[in-house]
Specification:
The complex is a heterodimer of chains A (about 120) and B (about 110). Helix content of chain A is about 0%, strand content about 55%. Chain A has no helices and eleven strands. Chain B has no helices and eleven strands. Classes of the chains: A mainly beta (about 120), B mainly beta (about 110).
């Protein structure tokens, strides 16, 4: 009954490869996110989608391409992987609409190691 | 850029003691949220405090918010070894398109 699930949890791949991380939420939320956590534990937003529409793209290299086939899914595809892409990638979601904001729910993370 | 700065970066206490973590931020916010991250795991939401609230409690957690100083604190009372984790504050900023901006985190170690 995981609310936000992402796969794979661990991914080790060679430089130059293309890989995807999938995310699904069963909370009925209309907004989904990808965050990146580096080795120093800094969490930084990458993308945000609302009702399948991209609303935030935080100067992420265009090798990263999010795709939202529907409101419940937000996948992250990475082309030509580089060593610096090694990080933990977190998917998250929340319901918009409350003026004072709502809780964001996170997945368990996908540990990407590029060798 | 990182919005919040957390203080201290690391904190080591004994079980039963209280742990206090502070967070400062820079812009106007709708709310501020605290999350916990156990080693190798995802982020778990702990508590949300809205910009018009000054204090909030949830179990052993007490959060304060001072919007005039742009700061918040998280107090964990009667800490347990299971509280060992990293704690992050995150601000839900006004005027931005629906995102949380995270602080740098405090690593809490609770020893027996």
């Amino acid at each position: 009954d995981t609310a936000v699930s992402q796969t794979p949890k661990y991914l080790v791949t060679q430089m130059g490869n293309d890989k995807s991380i999938k995310c699904e939420q069963n909370l009925g939320h209309d907004t989904m996110y990808w965050y990146k956590q580096d080795s120093k534990k800094f969490l930084k937003i990458m993308f945000s989608y609302n009702n399948k529409e991209l609303i935030i793209n935080e100067t992420v290299p265009n090798r990263f391409s999010p795709k939202s086939p529907d409101k419940a899914h937000l996948n992250l595809h990475i082309n030509s992987l580089e060593l610096g892409d090694s990080a933990v990638y977190f998917c998250a979601s929340r319901r918009q609409g409350s003026p004072s904001g709502n809780t964001i729910y996170f997945g368990e993370g996908s540990w990407l190691t590029v060798v | 850029s990182q919005q919040g700065e957390e203080d201290p970066q690391a904190l080591s206490i004994q079980e039963g003691e209280n742990a206090t973590m502070n967070c400062s931020y820079k812009t106007s916010i709708n709310n501020l949220q605290w999350y916990r991250q156990n080693s190798g795991r995802g982020l778990v939401h702990l508590i949300l405090i809205r910009s018009n609230e000054r204090e909030k409690h949830s179990g052993r957690l007490r959060v304060t918010l001072d919007t005039s100083k742009k700061s918040s604190s998280l107090l964990i009372t009667a800490s347990r070894a299971a509280d060992t984790a990293s704690y992050f504050c995150a601000t839900d900023d006004t005027g931005t398109a629906s995102k949380l901006t995270f602080g740098t985190g405090t690593r809490l170690q609770v020893t027996l």
